[in-house]
Amino acid sequence: MTIRLAKIVMTLMLAAFAGIVTSDNLADYGSNYLFVQHVLSMDTTFPHNALLYRATTNPLWWQLGYWLIIAGEGATCLLLLAGAVALWRRRHASGIDFNHAKACAIAGLVVGFLVWFFGFMVVGGEWFAMWQSKIWNGQEAAFRFYVAIAGVLIFVNQRDDDLPAG
């Protein structure tokens, strides 16, 4: 039972994290929007670098990018909450039933990995060369997030057997 409860608690902790991040991005929309604006504009990357053709200075793209991030964070939160509830409800069930209850939690973890790895490392970090910016570089924070998510994904995805009788 300890392992099942650990999986539930870890899923809930990541749901809380994603929920707070979503809330913060809505409450402090302007400063976080500014982050997206600078990354997509590539205005603090190395001057005259060969990747500047990728930059966009169109505010519609900045808004779309930012809303995709917020939507991904919110979806991560909701899926992880639903996953934790499903796991909680089946904590005393057979191993097969408990394993089937992991679907929403796993989906939430994958969406979170998509946001913080693909969104921040692949798109922001490499496509828009965020790594070149000393001011607007979120790669270190994103790394901490997606590594935590990946660790929980590996743990939650481990097969659970039936609980011992008694």
From TrEMBL:
The keyword Transmembrane applies. It comes from Paraburkholderia solisilvae. The chain crosses the membrane at residues 64-88, 100-121, 141-157. The keyword Mitochondrion does not apply. It comes from the Bacteria. Keywords: Membrane, Signal, Transmembrane, Transmembrane helix. Residues 1-18 form the signal peptide. This is Small integral membrane protein.
